[in-house]
Amino acid sequence: MTVEATSTRSAPTGDGPASEAALDQRPNDTHQAMKLGLRHRYYLQFADIATLAVSAVLGAVALNLVSPARANYIDFVNASVDIVVAIAAMAMALHLHGLYRRPAARLRPSEWWRPGVIARCVPTGALLALFIDAFVLRDGRGMTLTAAVAMTLPAILLVPLGRRLIARTMDPTVSRILVIGTGPISDRLTSRLQRCPDTFVVGHVDDDVAPGTSSPVLGNLSDLPAVCAAYKIDRVIVGFPNTSDAIVLEALRQLQGRVPISEIPRYFELHNWRSEAEELHGLTLMHLPTASLGPSARIMKRVMDVTLATCALVAASPVLLAIALAIKLDTRGPVFFRQERGGQGGVPFRIFKFRSMTADAWQKRNTVAQLNESDGPLFKMENDPRVTRVGAFIRKTSLDELPQLINVVRGEMSLVGPRPLPTEEADRIDGAAGLARLDAKPGITGLWQVCGRSDLSYADLQHLDSVYVRSWSLMWDVRIMAKTPRVVFARSGAY
């Protein structure tokens, strides 16, 4: 098989048993990678135990402060065995929840930082401590369970932090990935993986190469074992190959057990981290998660919104007063701009923003309509003549959106959510992806803010809003809020 510079095909030809033997005789660097993965896992276990120990100390101190009369109840000299057992119970819970399940290979950065999973481990650890207290120690004091409960909150905060810190000290590992299939979906997968520092897409294999494929095609499905051996592949991802299912299945059976294999679900757009596999009469099914937030998720999100928005309003009050004064001195008109926006469930609400345009800007909209730079029903202009001098600054820095904290406290908006669109623009959005945004409250920031802001197309905005609603998690909200200041200060896509 010839090698072509245009990346059409460049791979060793598979020859049955010889290819399989080559795969079994991969170079020693694969073995070194396995050893590196094991070492990383040991470091991770050490970090978890260390942070659990610190959590136990903090929990005991907090308990003594809350209940001084029982200051001797948690005594680390007399109760050291109970404390150690409580730490062991929590560490065992982390293991039972699969935080060390990845065998031998490479731990990706996302696997170091898993606070949601760690939070779910805490009740398991408490139950283990209760079992040990009742059936192993049998001292009747309940010290092991008390220590486990006392360390709960510190553990939820400190264990992810310890994992994050230990991850920064580790040698970076890069997974070499081979994609089965060519075409738009496979190219999209490759593009996304290439943006991740811990993955490198070596190329694709397919029997019928799709036109316009931009990534290198390394061979046919029959070449799969030889390609994996020659290019030292760490993981194979099955996309949507232009090959019969029987041929793909046979190729994967030859590879199974030698290289980790993952598969993209057929309707991957509807899946997220809440998707679950279930067995029904011997068939493995993927359960599609609900597209809306559940009651507990809404409560957690609301508590975070009210707490942070109230604190932000108090802390930013001097800035709010300064901006209000600057707007008054710059041009005539009100300080605040109030407008009806589409809210959760399509219910309209009046949004608060600092006025960044002339007082008659809304009446002049028809005169600048032909200058609209956005596709779809949205209206955007980079150099809008209606923007005032102060308005240009507060729009670039997103300071004009600070009054929306009032909407958050009132329950009309959230800190993170879909973009709040004017009612006439929101009413023109259709399709399943566009309607999904109605399941959540609009946000001051969101995926649209950290992924391009005003530079986004109408289709991109719809997609990001839909992805956010379908894949919501409390930690994702925290990450989006953490990324927002960097995007705002960079002023990218803001106008």
Summarize the structure in words.
It is built from 19 helices and eleven strands. The chain has 495 residues and is an alpha/beta fold. The chain is flat, with a radius of gyration of 28 Å.
Query: What Rg, in angstroms, do the CA atoms define?
Result: 28 Å
Q: Write down how many β-strands occur, each being a DSSP E stretch of 2 or more residues.
A: 11
Give the termini distance in whole angstroms. 53 Å
Largest sheet, in brief, is:
5 strands, parallel
Catalogue the unreliable spans: 1-8, 13-30, 103-107
Strand order of the main beta sheet, please?
A: 3-2-1-4-5
Percent of residues in beta strands: 5-15%
Helix and strand arrangement:
Elements: H1 17-24, H2 28-66, H3 80-96, H4 109-112, H5 115-137, H6 143-150, H7 152-169, E1 175-180, H8 184-194, E2 199-205, E3 217-219, H9 224-230, E4 235-238, H10 245-255, E5 261-263, E6 276-280, E7 283-287, H11 295-315, H12 317-330, E8 336-342, E9 348-354, H13 389-396, H14 404-410, E10 414-416, H15 423-426, H16 431-436, E11 443-445, H17 447-450, H18 458-470, H19 474-490
Parallel strand pairs: 1-2, 1-4, 2-3, 4-5, 10-11
Antiparallel strand pairs: 6-7, 8-9
Family: Belongs to the bacterial sugar transferase family.
Keywords: Membrane, Transferase, Transmembrane, Transmembrane helix
Transmembrane segments: 42-64, 76-96, 117-137, 143-161, 306-327
